[in-house]
Structures are given as structure tokens and as C-alpha cells.
Amino acid sequence: MFRHATNFGQRVETVCAVLLLVAIVVLVAIASIARVVGSPIIWSVEIAQLCLVWLCMLSADLAMQNGRHFGLSLLSDALSPARKRLLELFNRAVLIILLGLLLYYAWHNAHLMHPRLIGATQMHGSYLHASMVVGLCLLLRTMIAQTYAVWRGTSFMKDTL
């Protein structure tokens, strides 16, 4: 049941990321054509930035789910499997604490930015900063699930190249 929910969540995130990427490409193309024609779309940059920030946060979580974030394994490769697992659990605990702290400050930042209106669209700044809150929640969820898998001794990553 949990695996089905995880797969469904990852598919939803992937679809959202692809839609955001398509929206950015289409928006930039239309804005470029409009500028050449002599009728620039003044809000296109703000919407493209909004989409890009959300895309980056979703993509970061998708990369973490698939084990595609970079890592240094020089020290851990020299350890026995038991010690390697302990080191990985320690590293993940540190990352969970860091993500929790970042989430705390991102939440307060999004709240502080709500009254601020952005440029031509006059949208609230919290719409932009909410991407950090949502993205950090997704990253925290992924990190906790992967830490639990390491704790149980099961694999959390899909087959990679």
C-alpha cells in the first residue's frame, strides 16, 4: 500500500515538473515572439520565474527519490558494510535536522513575504516563497522514508544505470 502511494506521488510530481517545464518553454517562446512583434508581455518574466522556482524544488525531490543527488563515498567505501550503514544513518539524521531547520525558516519567510506584491502581476511574494516550503516538505518526506529503508536494511532506490 505504501509503495503504491509513493509511486503515485512520484508520478504526480513528475507530471507537475513536466508541465512546469512546458509552461516555461511556451511562455518564453510566446514572450519572445511578442517582443519581436513589438508588443512585449510585461508579466512573462515573473511567471517564468515562479514556474522555474517550483520546477527546481520538485526536481530536487525527484532527484533525491531516485538517488541522483551527488555524494562523496571516499570514506564510506573504506568501511565495512555495518559501519557504512551507521555512517549513512548518521548522515541522513543530520540532513533531516538540516531540512527541518530550513523548513522552519522557509515557513516564516513565506509568511513575511505575503504582503509584498511582485512587479507587474501584483501577486503575493508568498506564492514564490511557498515553493521552498513545499519543496522542503517533499525533501524531508523523502529523506525520512529513505532513512527508514536504510534502518530496516531494505533498498530505497530504483534500479539505476
From TrEMBL:
The chain crosses the membrane at residues 12-34, 40-60, 89-107, 127-151. Its main location: membrane. GO terms for cellular component: plasma membrane. It is found in: Cell inner membrane. It comes from the Bacteria. Part of the tripartite ATP-independent periplasmic (TRAP) transport system. This is TRAP transporter small permease protein. It comes from Sulfitobacter marinus. The lineage of its organism: Bacteria, Pseudomonadati, Pseudomonadota, Alphaproteobacteria, Rhodobacterales.
